[in-house]
Structure formats: C-alpha cells, structure tokens
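[stage:ingest] chain + small molecule (zinc ion)
[stage:ingest] validated
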Amino acid sequence: MKFAPMNHSMKSIRIHLRILLTLLVAVWLVLACKKNGWTEEERALIAGQPDVMRVLTVENEGDLQVLRTPCTNLSAAMLADPLYEQLAAKMIATVTSPEQNGVGIAGPQVGLSRRIVAVQRFDKEGEPFEVYPNIRITALRGEPELGREGCLSVPGRRGEVLRYRDIDIQYTLPASGKDTTERIEGFTAVIFQHETDHLDGVLYTDKLAPEHPEDTASDSE
Ligand SMILES: [Zn+2]
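[stage:predict] done
[stage:export] tokens:
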C-alpha cells in the first residue's frame, strides 16, 4: 500500500502554517531584544551627551525623582552592546572631570535607573577608576566607623556617616556575563557603600549621624 499523495489544499495549509510560524518567531525575537536591551530613551541619553555627562542634583525636582528611583539590573544583551562601553567611559570622564573631581558616581546621577557604578580603587596600584555593573553588597564585616562624606548630587554639603571598612561586593563581569564576588577593605569600601546606596534611591543625607550634623564645604565625592 502507498500513501496517498498530499492534495493541493493540505499543501497550501502547510505553507501558510510555516509562514505564520516564521512571523511569530520574528515578532518574538524583536520583542525579546527590546525587552533585554537598552531602551530608546537610554540610548538617546548615553549617546546624545558629551563625554562629561550632566550630573543630576537634589536641587532640581525632576532630578530628585530620578535620584530616588530604585535601579534595575543590566541584561547580558545590554552589557554586550557597544553602548555599555560608551556609558562606562562617559561615567569615568564625568566623575574625573575638573568640575566634579569625585571618587565615585552611580547610574542615577547621570540619569540612568540602572545598577552601575564607577569607583576609584584606592586599594589598587595607580588608584584607577573602575566600572561595576549589577553591583550589590553581599557582606559587611566588623564595626561601622564614622567618616565625612559628600556627594556630586548634593553640592556644597558634607556630613558624617557610619560605614563598614570590610565588605564583599558582587557584580557581573561584562566579558563573560558571569557574577563574581570580591572583598573590599578600607576607604574604597566606603565609596562602594555610598555608590551602591544610590542604586536603591538612598542618599548619604538619609544616613547622617545625628550627633554630627552636616556642614557645608566646597569639595565633594
Ligand atoms: Zn553620591
């Protein structure tokens, strides 16, 4: 016995199904890319600014809203996009610019509600600035100590804050997309705590030690 040859209408249904399936996959791919990548607004913000980006401050009502917004992670697609390298370079150019002269900066301070910080590594030779995506503090050790802090987003003010000097950070390595953990000690640990707070919408002024009211100063971080 032989199979009956496929008639014309069955063939046409199969072709239509194949076209429909291809279209569905194409639509899904477009949506998936949009969902996991940089938004058009973020692209415009990063690419559209000079190397030294505008730093948001608490003095502007619109800026304050962004500074108070908790941040979301960067996806593997975002880290693989050339825009990530552009953002990392611009954040470093901004924090090291003569007008800012800071030791750390966080995503919200340049208008991005993403978990990314640039920190000066005083614990490394040459004290380089490095960028950390998807950063979290995963351990705090010892007793917190008081130290004076300022913030690029809170111009002209400084205050005493309790911070730990021995912590663990976890972040994503952009090249591999894998998470890694690192132990940080000393003043660099203080910077990491200040910058990571920004990613949760927290400012150092929320944590001022009551017996050490803030004062005004010209330098900031
Ligand atoms: Zn700050």
